[in-house]
Amino acid sequence: MTRVVKKYGGSSVADAKKLYAVARAIAAEHRAGNEVVAVLSAQGGGTNALLARAREIDPDCSGRELDALLATGEQCSVSLCAMALQRLAIPAVSLSGWQAGIETEEVHGSARIMRLSNDRIERELAAGRVVLVAGFQGLSPKGDITTLGRGGSDTTAVALAAFLKADRCQIFTDVDGVYDTDPNRYPDAVKYDRLSYDEMLTLARSGARVLHDRCVEFAKKYGVEIEVRSSFGSGEGTIVAAP
Question: What is the pTM of this model?
Answer without folding.
Answer: 0.94
